[in-house]
């Protein structure tokens, strides 16, 4: 399978993403509320089409993305479809990720304000289409997470880039445990910028019609309720700075702190292979220097996971059969070798995701 950038894909016409213009703002509404707005390939292409249409339109000052329904912006990718694809040995998921990851990078570099209303549940792929935006808004209902290790996968959509840049080892804690955070902790970790009570979101949307993005949000932004992570930094930074998952767990259990022991228990329920690959990916992301380089790495990891047993088993246990009893292979951290981990980072040859030089952060002047 040889990839090329896809500039001229046919225009996608369906109602899974509602596209409209209100005044000087372009609005994207994820419209699968019964599926908690889970993202699929058509939706990713629909968003990309709209961004292309609006990028050079002088009538559009900003882009706004939100989710239909009351439960959240987006619960992530359509993992049941990924499960079926992986079981059949297909490549539809790899094709989806290829376009999705390029969309994530595009959002991060979009030349107009990109306002993400991260109300309710925002997980996995939902983080990818929101947390790379330039104006990120959380509410008291926000629950933001990268829970991939629980399904035998690794934080993707630029998640390892975002979490690797969180203060201290907060990102490592969130990546390994998959723990969700509210508005204050998400802001502390660099995943959101502003807190707006959910009751004020309609007013923000109205203001965006004729006001700049920062002014519209600023009119209604306030301080969020107190979070938890700031008071837990000491044990989180001390424990998660270890070089191996085994040592992280040992430190967590030895702290004598109840929250640390609980975190260790949570980690023990996750895929051992996914945990070790996630830690390696986070450490590498700190050194790679740009979102694009990290997305290239995540694509290698994701494509390898597609043919690994834990992804199918994890989705089966959590989503398909819902027995919450995954049988990981290998079943313990000690049995996951360095070679097992290295396999996820191996080049894909002609199937690589790669960004042209003029698409990289270095060319755009971003500092690592």
UniProtKB/TrEMBL annotation:
EC assignment: 3.1.2.4
Keywords, sorted A to Z: Hydrolase
Pfam families linked to this entry: ECH_2
Catalytic activity: 3-hydroxy-2-methylpropanoyl-CoA + H2O = 3-hydroxy-2-methylpropanoate + CoA + H(+)
GO MF term (any one): 3-hydroxyisobutyryl-CoA hydrolase activity
Claim: Cytoplasm is one of the keywords in the record: no
Signal peptide: none
SUPFAM superfamilies per UniProt: ClpP/crotonase (SSF52096)
InterPro entries to which the protein is assigned, alphabetical: ClpP/crotonase-like_dom_sf, ECH_dom, HIBYL-CoA-H
GO cellular component terms listed in the entry, alphabetical order: cytosol
GO-annotated biological processes: L-valine catabolic process
Coiled coil (UniProt feature): none
UniProt keyword Hydrolase present: yes
Annotated Enoyl-CoA hydratase/isomerase domain residues: 26-345
NCBIfam families: PRK05617.1
Name of the molecule in the record: 3-hydroxyisobutyryl-CoA hydrolase
